[in-house]
Design goal:
Elements lengths: L4 H22 L7 E9 L5 E10 L2 E5 L8 E4 L4 E4 L1 E3 L21 H17 L2 E6 L5 H10 L6 E4 L11 H14 L3 E5 L14 H13 L3 E6 L2 H9 L4 E4 L5 H10 L2 E3 L5 H7 L1 H4 L7 H22 L22 H8 L5 H15 L17 E4 L13 E6 L2 E5 L5
Parallel strand pairs: 1-4, 1-5, 6-7, 7-8, 9-10, 10-11, 11-12
Antiparallel strand pairs: 1-2, 2-3, 5-13, 13-14, 14-15
The structure holds zinc ion.
The site of zinc ion (ZN) has 4 residues, from loops.
């Protein structure tokens, strides 16, 4: 077949034209860098920076300092205090009060449940928490993935999916379940190695069960978070090579020394979870071990956990992460843990800030992605009205929240 010159050229010309027309739609979403004008920033690793610019390109921090690029969008954060996005390593993002105001149970219609969980995600992000770890339930996976797709505002989520416990099976079965969780998409493994604080916190999983679960997880590159209150259960988790001990209400000097020696992370939850239960008692009372006895125990638990936290602080090598154990009613108030740690626990405010940023990021093996202000890291950036290191209540006033380079909250207009 012989084409005329015009016929031969036409398709090519059409392709060229259409590519030009389509190109803007095909290009990545963010074209222009964003420049944040900063008066005071804490970098999350103990340092502070004054009067600078943070240049964000795509989802990451391009550089700190230097001239603003042309055509860049600018947010003026001077007068606010800038930090990396905060991290909650222990938030039950799915727990919520139902339409009747009670702690939600099985009877709730799924359409309502899903929306309450979205509330939790939005409130958590608006509070300045750009990453959370949920230990965990199967429904977390869909929420995690929907937020990652960018269709729902919320923190970046890591989840254990369904936790494992003493009656999950013998060591062989536990190894199998750990592999199954990984296949199901879990980011880490959650284990219950002791009873709840409401029931005294005694060890439940055997040493052999813990060794099997934590050992198998480690061989698959998964971290393990272990609910453990009694010294025996905390010790068993540490010796089994598990990554982190959660709660640890009855931790002793001996156990904290052992944990520091093994590099086991400690996640005390002293500022939000028990207070939240007590404030919302009628919404929980009558369900499971949320009985009068349980609430009396939680009341006593306030002083116990605070004293244990103070003890932990004397162990300088112990790596303390920032988890709240947020349940229904607590989401969006994850900052209360910071306030109690500094105000009542006597933690150095800069150390508390490092805990909620870089130390928590490191505990999640994400120190090269989040938890600090540095070029190449995700642009998870929060600005507070006030300086949380000088006035802890400023932690309640996140005025600007950026996650992965996208602005989700800005109480100041963009220029
Ligand atoms: Zn928990």
């Amino acid at each position: 077949m012989k084409l005329t010159l015009t016929q031969a050229l036409r398709p090519a010309a059409w392709v060229a034209l259409s590519l030009t027309a389509l190109w803007p739609a095909l290009a990545p979403a963010q074209e222009h860098p964003i420049v944040l004008k900063v008066g005071l920033a804490y970098d999350g690793k103990g340092g502070s920076i004054r009067n600078t610019t943070i240049v964000v390109e795509g989802s990451k921090i391009l550089r700190i300092g230097g001239a603003a690029p042309r055509d860049a969008a600018t947010y003026d954060l001077t007068g606010l205090t800038v930090t990396p996005g905060w991290i909650d390593t222990h938030s039950h993002i799915g727990y919520h009060f139902d339409n009747s105001g009670r702690n939600a149970g099985r009877g709730e219609p799924q359409s309502q449940s899903v929306l309450h969980v979205v509330d939790n995600a939005v409130m958590t992000l608006n509070a300045g928490f750009t990453t959370i770890q949920s230990p965990g339930q199967m429904a977390d996976k869909d929420l995690r993935d929907a937020i990652a797709r960018g269709i729902i505002p919320g923190p970046r989520i890591l989840t254990s999916l369904q936790p494992l416990m003493e009656n999950s099976g013998d060591p062989d079965r536990l190894r199998e379940l750990v592999r199954q969780r990984k296949e199901q998409g879990a980011d880490f493994i959650k284990l219950f190695a002791s009873k709840s604080i409401r029931e005294g916190g005694a060890q439940t999983m055997t040493d052999a069960q813990l060794q099997a679960a934590c050992g198998e997880a480690k061989s698959l590159g998964l971290r393990t978070l272990v609910h453990a209150h009694s010294p025996e259960s905390m010790k068993a988790a540490t010796l089994a090579g598990c990554t982190s001990v959660e709660h640890g209400a009855y931790g002793t000097d001996e156990v904290f020394s052992l944990m520091a020696e093994h590099g086991t992370y400690y996640d005390p939850n002293i500022g939000l979870v028990l207070q939240n239960y007590l404030e919302n008692k009628p919404k929980f009372l009558g369900q499971g071990n949320y009985n009068e006895e349980g609430f009396a125990f939680m009341q006593k638990g306030l002083a116990i956990t605070l004293a244990t936290f103070k003890k932990a602080l004397t162990h300088k090598d112990l790596k303390i992460v920032y988890g709240t154990d947020a349940v229904a009613g607590a989401h969006g108030r994850n900052y209360e843990e910071f306030i109690v740690r500094v105000r009542d626990g006597g933690q150095d405010p800069m150390a508390a800030l490092e805990s909620v940023t870089s130390i928590s990021a490191a505990s999640m093996n994400m120190g090269d992605q989040i938890g600090a202000l540095a070029p190449g890291l995700q642009a998870d950036i929060v600005a507070f009205d006030g300086d949380p290191l000088k006035d802890v209540t400023a932690a309640r006033r996140a005025a600007f929240v950026m996650k992965g380079g996208k602005v989700y909250k800005n109480l100041r207009p963009a220029r």
